[in-house]
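DEPOSITED CHAIN:
***
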Amino acid sequence: MNGFLSPKEITEKVVEIGKNKSELPILPMLLLGMLAGVYIGFGAELCTMVTHDLPKYLGVGFAKFIGGSVFTVGLMLVVLAGAELFTGNCLMLTGVLAGEVSVNGMLRNWLFVFFANFAGSMLLVVIMYYSNLWKIGNLGVGAAALTTAVGKVNLSFSEAFCRGIACNWLVCLAVWLAIAGKDAVSKIFGVYFPIMTFVASGFEHSVANMYLIPIGLFLKGNTAVVATANAAGLAWSVDSLTWSSFLVGNLVPVTLGNIVGGAFFVGGVYYFAYLRKNND
């Protein structure tokens, strides 16, 4: 007996899971959505903390690998502890194509979970800001967080969109591999490699950005953090970091890219490969 599901079995399981998600009552959906926002935020926060000064010791490439490795804790918590994550729920399209999930049921889940993810992310932003942990490393952590946020809002629409596609292609593959595993260790390894790949590559995740950009917005008002970031070679003016540049300039194209990468390139393709009747 295999210790993992076959690709066709995974596809069938994704349909079943999608059906259950579409039928979740609103209160559990919101609570689990907030938890996912917090969990992904923990991964993003840890990535910033661990890598804020790492490039000067280990080089940029290896620092990105370490950052990607620690970020994986976010999706591990979502998968094993249980939470509703918008990007992973893009796989519900498989259930829609299979006729087991209504379009309205999928969109209802996406809408409520997306805003719940945002609320959970903002909760962690407030907690982390008032923890003053961004002062670690002579404000180095805060400067790194600010630099990350500024860089994200200065992406063009096409850059953010394409990075969003690549990101959620990998995130949904991580969920796919986690579903394949029948024990916790298998699920952890299934999550680790695709998530490490997306973070180390510099792709864009809408829910992670719900933490990474607002924490920069909070820190933007601290002149010492801004000065530290500028001294470290901040490429753009902090004036470009606004709520509008976050919500419209980054979150919209990244979210659209995430939907394309996860829903169509994973959920849709595997439906046509394994479940569509009368395949040639």
In short: The radius of gyration is 19 Å. The chain has 14 helices and no strands. The chain has a mean pLDDT of 97.
